[in-house]
Amino acid sequence: MIFTDNTCGTHKAKDPAVVYLHGRYYMYYSRFAENGSLRLGIAVSCDGDEWRIHGELPLTQDCEKNGIGAPGAVVLNGKVHLFYQTYGNGARDAICHAVSGNGIDFIKDEANPVFAPRAGSWSCGRAIDADVCVFGDKLYLYYATRDPRMKIQMVGCAAAPLGSAYTRGDFTEAFDGAILKPELPWEGECIEAPAAIARGGRVYMFYGGSYNCAPQQIGCAVSDDGVHFTRVSLMPFLPNGAPGEWNASESGHPYVFEDIDGEVYLYYQGSADNGRSWYLSRKKISLPI
């Protein structure tokens, strides 16, 4: 699978999130407006491999005026819950929530944005790159934030009771600090884009290590409680490609998806030209059941 979006004249698609609903696959991703700001694109597929661009989530709320993107998604009780970030607001970027019964038309939470961590000793208060995972009786929200100096990017965690409205006030911080932060040489000053899946009573989290095209590569960590994570390897789970390959500059911003037949796929973004163009792809992976 190779997918991109050239609607605005450049080949750029980033930050994939995939769900299956009513016999079709829906992919939500970051696309770019002509002025360079971020938008949230929607593509549709019959097989999860060949995609047709449908359109984008319109900007309708004041918090979205500078752009939106980097979605995470989950199907709960037959509806798609979409979590996405505001864009272009620096330390004030936060996570929004919208719901759809058909994968295309979304009703946005009137309280948007619904979550950002408290600004304090470990975080500047920013929340981007949302992903959600059902584990136990909670919906865990994983997100990227930065330290108070806006230099180090890292992953935080919040949680809401299953069956709640997933609106402002339902999510509370599950841990007062980063649950993953850059520590390995290849992770540089950044861990972002958490992508979580519950399998075999544990949560597996894939993440992008290092900033875009540094190169960013994908790592993996595992948790028994959804909050405290341990890396499964000191090396990247999915490295960037060799010179000349489509992902030579980066394999990054993952999303993990379990298909209806139980197969697990890692969707991710790649670039060969230091971010002048971006493409999406997927690989089948194996995880314990």
What this model shows, in words?
It is built from no helices and 19 strands. It has strands spanning 14-21, 24-32, 38-45, 51-56, 68-76, 79-86, 95-100, 107-108, 128-135, 138-146, 153-161, 172-173, 191-199, 202-209, 217-223, 229-231, 250-258, 264-271, 279-285. Strand 9 (128-135) and strand 10 (138-146) form a beta hairpin. The strands form five sheets. Strands 1-2-3-4 form a four-stranded antiparallel sheet, with no helix packed on it. Strands 5-6-7-8 form a four-stranded antiparallel sheet, with no helix packed on it. Strands 9-10-11-12 form a four-stranded antiparallel sheet, with no helix packed on it. Helices cover 0% and strands 47% of the residues. The model has no long low-confidence stretch (mean pLDDT 97). The chain has 289 residues and is mostly beta strands.
